[in-house]
Amino acid sequence: MTMPSSTSVRPLADAPGAAFLRSPRPLVCGILNVTPDSFSDGGRFNDPERAVAHGLDLVEQGADLIDIGGESTRPGAQPPPVDEELNRVVPVVERLARLTEVPLSVDTSRPEVMREAVRVGAGMINDVRALRAPGALAAAVELGVPVCLMHMQGEPDTMQRSPHYGDVVAEVRSFLAERMSAAEGAGVSRALTVVDSGFGFGKTLAHNVALLAELQQFTTLGARLMVGVSRKGMIGAITGRPVEQRLAGSISAAVLAVQHGAHLLRVHDVAATRDALAVLAAVAKPREG
Ligand code: 7PJ
Q1: pLDDT in tens, the chain (289 residues)
Q2: Distance from the alpha carbon of residue 74 to the mean position of ligand 1, in angstroms
Q3: Assuming Cys at both sites, which of 14, 74, 155, 255 could form a disulfide with 39, CB separation 3.0 to 4.6 Å?
Q4: Ligand 1 within 6 A of CB of 199
């Protein structure tokens, strides 16, 4: 048996601060929106007390991670002023960090919000702009926490006007490879990197379906793979259901995503997703790493 050479790739997530990413089972990340205008729960968790209570409920339901976001990225949305985003996110991260051991992720593209959120207890950055905003890459390097790099074509205010690709899977994959290289080149450990094809972000239903069908292609990038399809428009388009009736469709897509190699699921309905994954795990062979 040959020993790994010193130049061999370190195991994924073999880095301090990323222990939770090492889990051999798929992780369920609960969504905590602290925005007045999010598409599925806009305004409901707007006040910090209610947001914290909802975060604790997600923990009770079995969340492995909680993703806290103060910028609505629904189609047509404009980013809030930075102070507004800070005011929405920081108090909730700070309070939840005191009340739970479950890792907290901050869903932001802004270096100021990344820094403040990590300072008060966030342990991960989830960036729908994949560290392309000025200063974001440097902030991620400095903070040394895991980072999710997501693909988006365009910006939320216009991204659904006319999404276009030659080969959506190849283009999204090469974008993610490029952003992984940029992050690694700047000093973000590959062990801390998560990638996400960004369902619904500048994509038609056909694009989203192609990405879900070919999800395995993203597992060879050398990063953990996150999938967020919970209650999204693609589930509505496939099932013909309004947002409050998309649980069954969302669960089906989540199970399919895990069967196709997803390591993290970003979901609203944590308990139901955990149940579905328990059924899958009972019949599936254990997956490597
Ligand atoms: C995603 C996200 C996603 C990652 C949102 C929603 C829309 N971050 N932030 N992946 N979606 N990484 O909550 O459905 O799919 S906002």
Answers
A1: 344 444 344 444 456 678 888 899 999 999 999 988 655 665 565 689 999 999 999 999 999 999 999 999 888 889 999 999 999 999 999 999 999 999 999 999 999 999 999 999 999 999 999 999 999 999 999 999 999 999 999 989 989 999 999 999 999 999 999 999 999 999 999 999 999 999 999 999 999 999 999 999 999 999 999 999 999 999 999 999 999 999 999 999 999 999 999 999 999 999 999 999 999 999 976 555 5
A2: 9
A3: 74
A4: yes
Atom of ligand 1 nearest to the CA of 31: 13
* Measured distance CA(258)–CA(216) in Å, rounded: 10
Q: Which two tokens stand for residue 82?
A: 């930075």
Establish whether residue 203 lines the binding site of ligand 1, counting it when its CB lies within 6 angstroms of any ligand atom.
no
E strands present in the chain: 27-33, 65-69, 104-107, 124-127, 147-150, 193-196, 224-227, 264-267
At 124, which helix (H) or strand (E)?
A: strand 124-127
Cβ–ligand 1 contact at 35 (below 6 Å): no
* DSSP for residue 82: H
Q: 194, 227, 266: which to mutate for ligand 1, most atoms within 8 A of CB? A: 266
Nearest CA to ligand 1 atom 16: 73
Residue 184 Cα to ligand 1 middle (Å): 23
Measured in angstroms, how far is the CA atom of residue 105 from the centroid of ligand 1?
A: 12
